[in-house]
Design goal:
Two copies of one chain form a homodimer.
Chain A (H helix, E strand, L loop, with lengths): L1 H31 L9 H23 L10 H9 L2 H8 L3 E3 L10 H7 L5 E6 L2 E6 L12 E2 H7 L3 H8 L7 H4 L3 H19 L2 H17 L2 E8 L4 E2 L5 E2 L1 H18 L5 E6 L6 H17 L4 E4 L15 H9 L7 E2 L12 H7 L4 E4 L7 H9 L3 E4 L1 H6 L11 H6 L4 E3 L13 H11 L6 H13 L5 H25 L7
Parallel strand pairs in A: 1-5, 5-8, 8-9, 10-11, 11-12, 12-13
Antiparallel strand pairs in A: 2-3, 2-4, 6-7
Helix pairs in contact in A: 2-20, 4-18, 10-11
């Protein structure tokens, strides 16, 4: 009997050790997670409890029935669920810092883009079955196409509008059927760019449009942007054409105007990003890059190359040109590893990006397959611009829980969350991508500290010069305190204990 | 002019350094990859050139047009492509070592299983719309169901056979529509087990069936198996019931018979794997486990718990029982992390598996989200049993290129490739899973060394006692040399230089 008691005691005590070891194990992993080193204040803890109460409810409903869980579904289906989410509503109010990866002609809401098609003097034609739009003075249309006034086409054909909308958005009720594979969705993506380009590059629309880009971010509590732009030529109705370098002026004027109207907004800088293209086109882009860097060093933050990564030349193809730019002090912010093809010319872009000293990596989707890239990215604190919804719509990942950024978050890598091209999939601002990252990519226990770290990272890894960065972080900290106070008072009745 | 020449020289030389650095970078990553330390002999190099010629052709065709690429498609669509693949045909002939993760009642081809339904005395009924099958002596059916002879049902209703097949296979032409989410596919999976269980546990069929399991492996050049089994009771037509411990005898006799017929075959051992269930059922399973371990220590390699991981109790729920087994010297081979839910009770199974000293991890799909688990798994050389097709059909991953095992392979983790339940998705043997791992999960440059390492790992991390393991590896090495010689002579005209 005595031995029995001792034996029982030994078992219980061993089990006690087991649970202690287990807790320590879980805590150690949690401390390695992105945001794991942040200590929340008492007030922040309150907000965290509100947030996590909602998060647990939503995740647990999804765990019970996956139909309730937005991040495992395609964004086209998930959006309705997200719009109804309390976590999402809270995320919208969070000061999210900066947007570091977005393309200038794809950044407004799709509703705003569509509304632009009601402008006067806008003509349309079709080229190989795809919509082309351009503004003309009445009677002065060029003869490159069979132009008709859109507002007349709308009257003639009641189905025209539905078709037009389909030409400027990837949205479809059955994405898998509509886009059987990645090449299909990219083809449509690139033809949308073709459709909207001359709508947006009409100078007066361009300025209004870009103002709205900033407005959408501001309304979503994003106060700064490093944006990718390819410096398109702009045009006036009278035939005036502005060359790429002149386009910079319109960006800068619009940003200044927006800042005057919204003093809290911190500005925007350009990562000049021509498309990976043939040598002749690239050569003229390099000339523009050099010139832009020289004339607008404050506005031009750096250089990148864009286009469907699998379908285009790899970075290494432009080594000479890139070395030239580097010699002039140009910083690189390369897209790299936006692919599922492992150990191919495409994901070797990750290696070239590192070897060329890239400041950040756009997407880096393939990075977890490259141990040495992982090591260097962490050592050198090269931020990874993760664009969850983009990666899903452009068919790298299906269920967001399979996004490789989960590994980056679990290991405390310098991740920032970006929206890439929200217009074309019906997102708006940065909150949808924050939601996907927070609910779908990060784990169940990831909390306010992760969101705070995402926001802080977006400023820390922005291209802002040191003094402006300090000021930006100070300004964000005020917004953050404000957010905490407002949340506590608005949710006063819902704070769990 | 002179300065110009010097400048040009400096650029070229700097570029030369760049390419040298780049090559070194790629080589360093390649050396960390699983199999990266293997040095191929001259003969093996020849086989490797044949293999890689085919691999590059198939991958490059997929890169051009994803419709050609099997691993990014659902296995139900991909199988036809794989059957036509030259890489697959070569993989079939490779001595693949051992199968370390397969469930006893799901291991034959679906054609063989279907053929069993033509046996005499087999009756069927429906339970909640699902098929149930059982053997009876004519006129001695029990009254638990409305039994009818299957061979009569086939004559009465010409559509019966098609329905019957649908009840014992997950196959469907439109997986996404048929199984909107993971719970749907698991529900069907578990009801298939229900449908086939009493077909297979009729003692004479059970022996024939299990013989065929070994035959399928043997035919696919797999010479040993650690299999999960839940020791079902067997029955005879005369009403005799064999208890779980007696079932062991039939396994052992069948294995001995198969070894007599196929002297090269090395055997099979049981990882006793009851379903995670309520306490009462689990308690009787634990009793069986203790008894089995005592009576058949050579055959019973260890213990595991099975069932849809998200839907069942976590490992920790059975801590007391598991500690008891551990005290008796039982080895654990836990399923853990077969989930997409990050930082939940489910993927914390990975932590409990480690803390309980698991010898291997079944699936470990969630492992790349757990840095400390990753670290310990590598340090302690705990093999990860990766089951590519299972993870796809059971809806953890869609495109095989997103399988987290890519990260494990890139980092040289002790991975083995397994087939889990091939019957229910129309696979056969281990080659389909090897193909998916080689073509879909590993990178383009992964070559014969990876396949060799998979095979070697399957023996190294098997449950075989040290002396038998040495003998098994020696036997495999002979088969491997044989495979190399035969391949060189059969492909003599196709060896690239």
């Amino acid at each position: 009997m005595y031995y029995g008691v001792v034996f029982l005691f030994l078992i219980v005590s061993a089990q006690g050790d087991y649970f202690a070891d287990r807790d320590a194990f879980i805590k150690e992993e949690a401390s390695e997670m992105l945001g794991g080193s942040i200590q929340l204040t008492e007030k922040e803890e309150k907000v965290n409890r509100i947030l996590m109460q909602y998060k647990f409810r939503e995740m647990d409903a999804g765990f019970q029935n996956p139909r309730n869980f937005a991040p495992s579904q395609h964004f086209f289906q998930a959006r309705r669920l997200i719009d109804n989410s309390n976590v999402f509503k809270l995320i919208q109010t969070i000061p999210k810092g900066a947007l570091l990866h977005g393309h200038d002609v794809c950044l407004v809401s799709s509703d705003y883009l569509y509304a632009l098609t009601y402008r006067e003097n806008l003509y349309a034609c079709t080229v190989n079955g795809r919509l082309r739009m351009k503004f003309f003075e009445s009677g002065r249309q060029d003869n490159t196409c069979n132009w008709n006034l859109i507002n007349v086409l709308r009257i003639i054909d009641p189905s025209y509008d539905r078709w037009l909308r389909s030409q400027i958005n990837l949205y479809t009720t059955h994405p898998k059927q509509r886009y059987p594979n990645i090449n299909d969705v990219w083809e449509t993506f690139e033809s949308i760019i073709f459709s909207v380009l001359e709508l947006l590059t009409y100078r007066p629309v361009f300025e209004e449009y870009f103002y709205q880009v900033l407005q959408d971010l501001y309304d979503d509590n994003v106060m700064y942007m490093d944006f990718r732009g390819f410096l398109p030529s702009l045009y006036e109705l009278n035939g005036t054409i502005y060359q790429p370098l002149e386009t910079i002026r319109f960006y800068e004027e619009t940003i200044e105007k927006f800042k005057r109207d919204h003093p809290k907004f911190l500005g925007a800088r350009l990562i000049y990003s021509p498309r990976k293209d043939d040598n002749a086109t690239m050569s003229s882009s390099i000339t523009v890059a050099k010139e832009a860097r020289k004339t607008n060093p404050k506005f031009v933050a750096g250089f990148d190359l864009v286009g469907q990564e699998d379908a285009r030349y790899p970075i290494i193809a432009y080594l000479n040109e890139l070395k030239e730019l580097q010699a002039l002090g140009m910083d690189f912010f390369f897209h790299a590893g936006e692919t599922n093809w492992f150990d191919t010319k495409t994901d070797f872009n990750l290696i070239d990006a590192i070897l060329l000293g890239t400041k950040r990596i756009g997407h880096g989707y393939a990075i977890t397959k490259h141990p040495k890239v992982m090591k260097l990215v962490k050592e050198r604190q090269i931020a990874i611009e993760v664009c969850p919804i983009s990666n899903q719509v452009l068919m790298l990942v299906d269920d967001m829980r399979n996004h490789p950024a989960a590994t980056l978050i679990a290991n405390g890598f310098p991740v920032v969350i970006s929206n890439d091209d929200p217009t074309f999939w019906g997102a708006k601002g940065l909150s949808y991508d924050f939601y996907m990252a927070f609910m779908g990519i990060a784990g169940r226990t990831a909390d306010l500290r992760l969101l705070k770290q995402f926001a802080l990272n977006s400023l820390t890894y922005s291209s802002l010069p040191a003094d402006e960065k300090r000021a930006a972080i100070a300004s964000w900290e005020k917004d953050w305190q404000n957010f905490i106070d407002i949340t506590i008072s608005s949710y006063a009745n819902e704070i769990p204990h």
